[in-house]
Specification:
Layout (H helix, E strand, L loop, with lengths): L22 E3 L5 E3 L1 H10 L10 H15 L5 H13 L6 H12 L2
Antiparallel strand pairs: 1-2
């Protein structure tokens, strides 16, 4: 089913010599200029594409780089907990454990 009534891709300028712009009809019957013709016109005019980032995006990138530079594991805390567990001094209150489990399960 050919919805857009477009010729197959890669057929050059559709056999029309000397034309730099091509048009076709979309599904609604409106004439649509070929994107490649407009791109070549932009390139020949000396214009180029560019991207401009807002200050918020720049700040987000800076924070992202900082977070990536942080260690994945807090070695001091892990060492402290291992020591407490190995010598039997690690204590967790029943209420704290129950609250954490309820928050984790979403109940």
């Amino acid at each position: 089913m050919d919805i857009n009534r477009l010729p197959p891709q890669g057929t050059g300028n559709y056999g029309r010599s000397g034309r730099t712009e091509r048009s076709r009809e979309n599904a609604a019957g409106d004439s649509v200029r070929d994107a490649s013709a407009s791109e070549s016109r932009t390139a020949s005019a000396g214009q180029s594409d560019g991207v401009s980032l807002s200050d918020g995006v720049r700040e987000l990138q800076r924070v992202g780089r900082h977070v990536q530079s942080l260690p994945d594991v807090r070695e001091e805390r892990v060492t402290e907990l291992r020591t407490q567990i190995s010598n039997g001094s690690y204590q967790v209150s029943d209420e704290s454990l129950a609250t954490s489990l309820l928050q984790f399960t979403g109940i």
